[in-house]
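Friendly challenge for the regulars: who can give me the structure tokens for this chain first? No prize, just bragging rights.
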Amino acid sequence: MSSTLNRFLQALPWNQSIELPDHHNWKCANQNALLEWEIKARPYNTTVANGMFWFMMSVALGACYLMFFKNDNSPLIEKLSWSAIFLSVFFLALYGTTHQKTKFAYRLTETGIEVCEWKAPSKGWMIALKWLTVIAAIAVIFVVALDPSAFWVALAGPGGMGLLYLGLANSKQFQEMHSLYRHNVFTWNEINHIYIDKSRHLVSLEYEWLNENINKTLPWWTYIFCHKRDFETTAEIILSKNTDTPHTHEKVEVLQF
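First reply, four minutes later:
Bragging rights claimed.
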């Protein structure tokens, strides 16, 4: 029974091992790895994303109340059923929007660190958003037929979600984000400052980047996402290879470029 349960848990998408892209090759494969790992992480400002998530869920709760409970004499079980369906699909679509994860692979060597970042096309949550819009629109049609004053609920609810769906589906940036592949190599002597965020198990490495558009060198960052169990070890190895580089322990807000 236990082995069956373990196999089931390992089969879940979030428990499956991360496989590097087929065309990927480590550029410093001839050097021994001090440490290497793969991880899924959210490479953006999670504070803003989480705030958006809770704000939109609050709006959904309010819309749900107006659509299914106000001025409606339907049986309570019917109201609760519609509410559960609406909120469940909305939650999945919204969570998939604000909590998207990107795959990372890291390899630390004596001379530097390699960072591989990629994201396989995965638009399942877009389908959920599309069907949520359809379901909510059908529900609102019935509500508006009974109470025309609910028109604004339809405009703010399914109408807004429909525009969101169309905007994302036709967004070039969204399509590029879902076919992302980056592979960078940094030598230890390129690093100018190290920022260590224990709360998020994140190390930020600052280096200089030449912006060819303005022909000017600017400070830039690469982010090292770590597993909680290995964070201390990873930070110690990075600091040991950068003994003369200034470092700071502080909260790091990830910038999305």
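The two ends are 47 Å apart (CA to CA). The first strand starts at residue 35 and ends at 41. Your move, everyone else.
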